[in-house]
Amino acid sequence: QAQLVESGGGLVQAGGSLRLSCTASGSIFSGDRMGWYRQAPGKQRELVAIITTGGVTTYADSVKGRFTISRDNAKNTAYLQMNRLKPEDTAVYYCNHDIVRVGGILDNIWGQGTQVTVSS
């Protein structure tokens, strides 16, 4: 069973920083793109940032210049460094991963989510 485990969420004041981690484990033959999404109450889930195995990154306009996505392929882990946080960044943050399962099946998996709350 392939799974993603996220950590690093919490409560922080506006202007502060948090670092999220997402580690993949289980029956994964290989991994491809990893990404972070977020969902605020009453809103749709939205893309925050994605990164390919080669390190090519894409960011939502709302987080450019403040958030940095990175990954350690040897550890099957992606990170999201969030600086200069704003109250509007408050949401549940989800990790997402394109994988090839053992047996060659392509799949896309989600983590359980981690709460980020930014107080004003």
- Into which percent range does the helicity of residues fall? under 10%
Order of helices and strands: EEEEEEEEEEE
Sheet with the most strands? 7 strands, mixed
Low-confidence runs: none
Query: What global shape is seen?
Result: elongated
Head-to-tail CA distance between termini: 40 Å
Mean pLDDT: 95
| Class per helix and strand makeup | mainly beta
Helix count, DSSP H or I runs of 4 or more residues: 0
Share of residues in strands: over 45%
Give the total of beta strands: 11
What is the radius of gyration computed over CA atoms, rounded to a whole number of angstroms? 14 Å
What does this protein structure show overall?
This protein has 120 residues and is mostly beta strands. 0% of the residues lie in helices and 60% in strands. It has no helices and eleven strands. It has strands at residues 3-7, 10-13, 18-25, 28-39, 46-51, 57-59, 67-72, 77-82, 91-101, 106-110, 114-119. Strands 2, 4, 5, 6, 9, 10 and 11 form a seven-stranded mixed sheet that branches. A hairpin with a 5-residue loop joins strand 5 (46-51) and strand 6 (57-59). The radius of gyration is 14 Å and the shape is elongated. The N and C termini lie far apart (40 Å). The model has no long low-confidence stretch (mean pLDDT 95).
